[in-house]
Amino acid sequence: MGFRVLTGLFAHETNTFSQLNTTLENYRDFVLAFGDDVPDAIAGSMLEPNGVIQVAEEADWDLVHTVAGWATPSGPVEREVWDVGAGAIFEAAQTQGPFDGIVLALHGAMTTVDHADAEGVLLQELRDIVGPDIPIAITLDLHANVTRLMARHANIICAFRTYPHTDQVATAARASRILDRTMKGEVVPRVHLARRNMLVGLDHGRTTVDNPMTQLLARAEALEGKDPGVLTVSLHAGFTPADFPEVGPSVAVTGDGPAARYRTIAEAYMHFAWEQRHFDSNEYLGAAEAMGRLSTLVDGAGPVVIADASDNPGAGAYGDSTFLLKAMLDAGLEQAAFGMICDPETAVQLTKAGVGADVSVRMGGKVDPAFGQPLELSGQVAAVTDGTYVAQGPRWRGVIQRLGPTAVLRVGGVDIVVASKRIQCTELETFTHAGIDPSQKAVVAVKSMHHFRAAFAPIARHILIVDSGALATKDYNRLPYKNLRRPIFPLDIN
User: Fold this and answer.
1) Which of 6, 261, 289, 470 lies at a C-alpha separation of 20 to 30 Å from 124?
2) How far is it, in rounded angstroms, from Cα 187 to Cα 228?
3) Starting at the edge strand that comes first in sequence, how are the strands of the sheet with 62-70 ordered?
4) Whose CA is closest to 316, among 72, 115, 25?
5) CA 39 to chain centroid
């Protein structure tokens, strides 16, 4: 048996403006497992521990699992979650060592009720336990807000390189291989971090078009291939609905040793990001504007997919905004599907009524009616499910998604998926598990910013992006920031 390595997945993308704190139940709804139960809990999925396991088997590591925890983005993570998630990592570090190395799958944008920079605090407390000499590798989401504390206590930082994210396993494997070289004494990694006064940039990290993000990624991969001292370059677009000083895009270069040239590389990459800060490949439409655009999109097969980026649960929005749904109903659309409204009260009412029942409901707008008042609707229950299915798409393949009691309400020509729990609509199975084939619809609406493209772009004849003005709006002047470093682009700097 080779090196003894501590590992875990403890991640969350926290929208600090959300009224809904993130609970232990929210983690159980997605994935929450501990110790030796972790491999079975994530087997066959896109989750990062599978990449660590892959390298551990190749390198003959003695792998000590701690926790695998992930929940849909929401408000600050509650103390109980921190105690069991971070606590599992700390407890193992204290009692199951000594360790030769550590590899953790984090997000980079977790905020708890106690810690604005939760991952920085986690790494600092872990470092206090294991000491300064044990190498720590971390993987991050491409939308991480990387802090100085994180860079100080991690030896290796590796972020995803795809958005939609489909390379979680590959990223964890890349980080683990660098850690293996470190434990063998082949390299001495050190992180060099650069940022600018930017709230947003790098085209939000999208990798489906030619943009500043893909251009920098190409440069990074070329540099890693020709410069053996550059172990990895990690590019982060940042997570904007997080109100703390170190929010925003950054570059972390993991170099072999402390050479100043690695910081120069990081600064050069950030300079490029700054110069390209105005680039945005999306055209954001209002809900009514999107309805007007539909009449012009008559060519091609498959549905027009409309993504409501501003009510995206994947960015911590509530998923119950009614602006887009009202516009679709007012437009009298036929052969349309809407995925989805999170409204547990209405979902239970519909499931109790049963398939075929004619019902009247008050739907949506219940967390914060400022993002769309509840709609008084009458329709027919077209389907009832328990809301549980295994995702098959590129984004969350192999992960069980749990919507809770779920129903389809047919109002005119629109089939509305009404769920009890919030999930970003990234999978075709959100519809197909409820008897809706989105490929056969004329219009399909999803509450998502960009991840939906992995599964829905192949069936879409056109894609429209809507900013209806909900919690995840791209109009950052509408968000009540109080703790940003100032001045910052685009709020204060053009």
Assistant:
1) 261
2) 10
3) 31-34, 62-70, 4-11, 101-105, 136-140, 156-159
4) 72
5) 22
- For residue 84, give the H/E element and its range: helix 79-95
- Other CB atoms within 10 Å distance of the CB of residue 402: 17
Cβ atoms within 10 Å, residue 29: 20
What is the CB neighbour count within 10 angstroms for residue 398? Answer: 14
Q: Of the candidates 105, 115, 96, 99, which has an alpha carbon nearest to the alpha carbon of residue 52?
A: 105
Tokens of 199: 């709230």
Local structure of residue 296 (DSSP, 8 states): T
Give pLDDT tens digits along the chain (494 positions). 699 999 999 999 999 999 999 999 999 999 999 999 999 999 999 999 999 999 999 999 999 999 999 999 999 999 999 999 999 999 999 999 999 999 999 999 999 999 999 999 999 999 999 999 999 999 999 999 999 999 999 999 999 999 999 999 999 999 999 999 999 999 999 999 999 999 999 999 999 999 999 999 999 999 999 999 999 999 999 999 999 999 999 999 999 998 899 999 999 999 999 999 999 999 999 999 999 999 888 777 899 999 999 999 999 999 999 999 999 999 999 999 999 999 999 999 999 999 999 999 999 999 999 999 999 999 999 999 999 999 999 999 999 999 999 999 999 999 999 999 999 999 999 999 999 999 999 999 999 999 999 999 999 999 999 999 999 999 999 999 999 999 999 999 99
Q: What is the dihedral of CA 132, 195, 173, 32, to 10 degrees?
A: 80
pTM over 0.70: yes
Extended beta strands in 17-172, E state: 31-34, 62-70, 101-105, 136-140, 156-159
Cis peptide before 135 (omega within 30 of 0): no
Please identify which residue in the block is written with the tokens 């809407």. 338
Alpha-helical (H) ranges within 387-474 are: 429-432, 453-456
- At 103, the amino acid letter reads V
Measured CA to CA, the distance from residue 218 to residue 150 in angstroms comes to 25
The tokens for 58 are: 């190749």
CA angle centred on 240, ends 239 and 246, rounded to 5°: 80
Backbone CA torsion sign across 387, 391, 394, 396? positive
Backbone dihedral angles phi then psi of residue 198, each to the nearest 5 degrees: -130, 130
Rounded (to 5) percent helix, strand, coil in the chain: 35, 25, 40
Phi, psi of 372, rounded to the nearest 5 degrees: 125, 120
Are the beta carbons of 350 and 418 closer than 8 angstroms? yes
| Longest alpha-carbon distance in the chain | 70
Contact criterion met (CB below 8 Å) for 30 and 42:
no
Phi-psi map region of 283: left, alpha, beta (phi>0 left; psi -120 to 50 alpha): beta
